[in-house]
């Protein structure tokens, strides 16, 4: 069985979050409030070590790993800052519902899909929310900026990821699917 990591009742801080500590604390307080609501509605008692862990540079609004991190909610810091009201009213309850759905299913020895009937029931009954799977927040500024490298073949230019670029530097050869010629960097100094 995989060891679970427990992060006790805290916000995991870094320099970026200290600048807006009140928002980070507000998110943790909302997580605690949602835990109380879900516990009362479902009758499920969890150890009370709620925590929030922030991440950045992603289009994902939030997630949980209840099988690895007990009661930790991971939230996208960039999106939280831009969409505070949506996070407090929808995203945080959404993620807490996952924790309670997992705990319930685990207690009866069953599994179901991540946004299955148990999660949907908790969203409706505990939080009074429609069980919507994905958010519709603008993620343009929140997503990773992926560096790409320009390569050429006989017929056109290709944009390659840093991973493929590094593999080429180590000796792997990529060919164009259209003309079957080997891709070469436009800038040979790369």
Question: Please, could you describe this protein's structure?
Answer:
This protein has helices at residues 15-18, 21-42, 77-82, 84-107, 117-125, 162-169, and strands spanning 5-6, 51-55, 62-64, 69-70, 72-76, 148-152, 157-161, 184-185. It is α/β, with parallel strands linked by helices and 190 residues long. The protein folds into 2 domains: 5-125, Zincin-like (2-Layer Sandwich), CATH 3.30.2010; 148-185, no CATH class. Helix 2 packs parallel to helix 4 (84-107) and helix 4 crosses helix 5 (117-125).
CATH architecture of the largest domain: 2-Layer Sandwich
CATH third-level topology of the largest domain: Zincin-like
CATH class of the largest domain: Alpha Beta
The chain-level structural class is alpha/beta
Number of domain units: 2
Strand order in space, largest sheet: 2-5-3
Work out the number of β strands.
8
Give the termini distance in whole angstroms.
45 Å
How much of the sequence lies in strands comes to 15-25%
Helix and strand sequence: EHHEEEEHHHEEHE
What is the topological layout?
Elements: E1 5-6, H1 15-18, H2 21-42, E2 51-55, E3 62-64, E4 69-70, E5 72-76, H3 77-82, H4 84-107, H5 117-125, E6 148-152, E7 157-161, H6 162-169, E8 184-185
Parallel strand pairs: 1-4, 2-5
Antiparallel strand pairs: 3-5, 6-7, 6-8
Helix pairs in contact: 2-4, 4-5
What brief labels describe this structure?
190 residues; alpha/beta; 6 helices; 2 domains; three-stranded mixed sheet; disordered N terminus; Zincin-like; three-stranded antiparallel sheet
């Amino acid at each position: 069985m995989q060891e679970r990591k427990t992060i006790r009742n805290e916000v995991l801080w870094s320099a970026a979050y200290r600048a807006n500590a009140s928002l980070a604390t507000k998110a943790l307080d909302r997580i605690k409030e949602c835990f109380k609501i879900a516990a009362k509605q479902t009758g499920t008692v969890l150890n009370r070590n709620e925590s929030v862990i922030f991440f950045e540079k992603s289009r994902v609004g939030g997630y949980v790993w209840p099988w690895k991190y007990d009661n930790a909610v991971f939230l996208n810091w960039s999106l939280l800052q831009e969409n505070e009201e949506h996070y407090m009213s929808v995203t945080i309850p959404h993620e807490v519902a996952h924790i309670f759905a997992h705990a319930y299913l685990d207690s009866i020895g069953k599994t179901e899909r991540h946004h299955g009937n148990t999660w949907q029931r908790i969203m409706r009954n505990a939080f009074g929310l429609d069980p919507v799977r994905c958010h519709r927040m603008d993620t343009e500024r929140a997503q990773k900026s992926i560096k790409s490298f320009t390569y050429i073949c006989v017929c056109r230019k290709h944009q390659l990821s840093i991973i493929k670029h590094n593999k080429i530097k180590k000796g792997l050869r990529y060919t164009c699917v259209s003309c079957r010629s080997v891709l070469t960097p436009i800038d040979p100094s790369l």
